Amino acid sequence: SPLHRVTQTALQITHAGDLSRRIPYRGPETDEIGQLITAFNQTLSRLENLFHTQQRFVADVGHELRTPLTVIKGNIDLMRRIGGADDESLQSVEVEVERMIRMVGDLLLLAQAEAGKLPLQGHLVALDTLLLEVLQQSQVLAQGKITLRLGEIDQVLVCGDRDRLKQVLINLISNAIKYTQPGGEVVAGVGKADGKARLTIWDNGPGIPADALPHIFERFYRGEKSRTRSVDGKGFGLGLSIAYWIVKHHDGEITVESDEGQGTRFEIWLPLSEGDCSPE
């Protein structure tokens, strides 16, 4: 009977652990058995995608942790050989430890977000004031080597979580500074367009390859050139994934445009406040 064949196929898939298999059915998809098989095959597809995502995630975390751990071990071996601790080795170890702490913190943040345990506040946020604050704090990252300036500025109010929106701006501006060569320029602005709030972060750095653009919001995405590879060999990490999640859960959108050798432009679109959120 059809149900017996469905049961046998399902058991074979379970025992073999092959989530790529699907249950065949030649009958009408609209009858009860057809609907049952369609639902089961859709569940298998979701499980297969989740399994592959988990596999990639574990592999990526392992890759990202291996580099700092290798550096730390190398410095410890060096200090053991010379019979003491030198400042340069200790500083290198400290940098890598801080890098791992940030990564673990980002992982926990993403895990909380995806589990629905990262509630966002709904207060009135002045984006112009917030952007000026982030630009002021980011000057230390530019170190006088990059021109960091304000572009368009307008008074813009949105309902949202100020700390999380600030995290998005810090991530995008620090990335722009990081990937822009000395003598380059990073411009940030805020205004209104098409009835929405628009934040822009633009740089004239090396740009992002076209084949990397669709993937930059993925966790630990690593390209092979230009902006997808930094001087320390790291890829995009988790910062852009977190930024994407925060913007999305503010009912907004984050977009990116880039030309290799010309620079990169990020835009964040958020709903304007309609006066129905509590003041900060």
Number of strands: 7
CATH class of the largest domain: Alpha Beta
Radius of gyration equals: 24 Å
Number of domains: 2
Give the second-level CATH assignment, the architecture of the largest domain.
2-Layer Sandwich
The N- and C-terminal alpha carbons lie at a distance of 65 Å
| Average pLDDT level | 85
Strand order of the largest sheet: 2-4-5-7-6
Description:
Mean pLDDT is 85; it is low at 224-235. α4 runs parallel beside α5. It contains six helices and seven strands. The chain folds into two domains: 1-118, Helix Hairpins (Orthogonal Bundle), CATH 1.10.287.130; 123-271, 2-Layer Sandwich (Heat Shock Protein 90), CATH 3.30.565.10. It has a five-stranded mixed beta sheet. It is an alpha+beta fold. The radius of gyration is 24 Å and the shape is globular. β6 and β7 (263-271) form a beta hairpin.
Would you spell out the secondary-structure blueprint of this structure?
Layout: H1 2-16, H2 32-82, H3 87-114, E1 123-126, H4 127-142, E2 147-150, E3 157-160, H5 162-179, E4 185-193, E5 196-203, H6 239-248, E6 253-259, E7 263-271
Parallel strand pairs: 2-4
Antiparallel strand pairs: 1-3, 4-5, 5-7, 6-7
Helix pairs in contact: 2-3, 3-6, 4-5, 5-6
